[in-house]
Amino acid sequence: MYDLHAHILPGIDDGPAAIEDSIEIARIAAANGTRAMLATPHRKDVTELSSVERIRDLTAELGCRIREEGIPLSLTLGMENHIDAALPADVAAGKALTMNGSRYILVEMPFFGDIEEHDYVEDALRELQAQRMIPIFAHPERIEAFQRQPELLERYIGMGMLSQLTRGSLLGDWGEEVRNFSIQLLRKGMAHILSSDTHSPRPPRTPELGEAAKVAAQIVGCHEAKAIVFDTPRAILNDEPPSYPSR
Ligand SMILES: [Fe+2]
Fold it and tell me: In the chain, N or C: fewer CB atoms in 10 Å?
């Protein structure tokens, strides 16, 4: 499996504090069948408390430690980018990162409020697309604007954007409403990849994707479940056009 949303870098954001926990995350992920992981530290923390240079160095260092431990997991770098008016310019300036340097960018929408309350959002999304990037929404099932207006997410997907469902949402970690919305997104083909959004080797936000992939298979079948944890995230990581689940 390919996990494209993971807070695995130590001491950067609300992920692990120590590198030992980062290695443990890698070990658990690999044992659970994940072969590639994209480190996605929060843009805000990197900008305010660290630097892009620092997270590049950390990714190289952690990748080296993972290899030395004999863990079969490759590690690459991206970022979880909260959306604001400065995001398109920050990407162009190299201060905000796409996924493994690809055309795909993980975008976190405001958690609360209707879209009308955040008038910069649509302009920023359009600017990203004008720069030939493909926004991928981080955990849309947890975003109030999408919960209230699923048709908004449907419209964005119709414009060529993608969506990333989170493991814990499908397993009920964020409550029944979020779980039911996750199922609805899967059934409608509005969840293109399934990722862990891991923050720790310890529950609830572990990197284990296997169980959630099985739940997804019960909902949409094995073919589509494979697409969201394997084919599509692999294509994204390799900067190829995504292979959408066929339906
Ligand atoms: Fe995250």
Answer: C
Contact 83, 62 (CB under 8 A): no
Kindly state the average pLDDT of the residues 64-86: 98
Domains of the chain and CATH, by start? 2-237 (3.20.20.140)
Q: Please compute the mean of the pLDDT values over residues 115-126 and round it to a whole number.
A: 90
Q: 41 CA to middle of ligand 1, Å?
A: 7
Q: What interhelical angle do 150-158 and 176-187 show, nearest 10?
A: 30
SS3 144: helix
* Separation CA 171–CA 44 (nearest Å): 28
In angstroms, rounded to a whole number, what is the distance separating the alpha carbons of residues 173 and 179?
Answer: 8
Is the separation of the CB atoms in 189 and 245 below 8 Å? Answer: yes
Give the residue from 55, 105, 115, 54 showing the smallest Cα distance to 82. Answer: 105
Give 207 Cα–ligand 1 centroid separation in angstroms: 12
Maximum distance among all Cα pairs of the chain, rounded to whole angstroms? 50
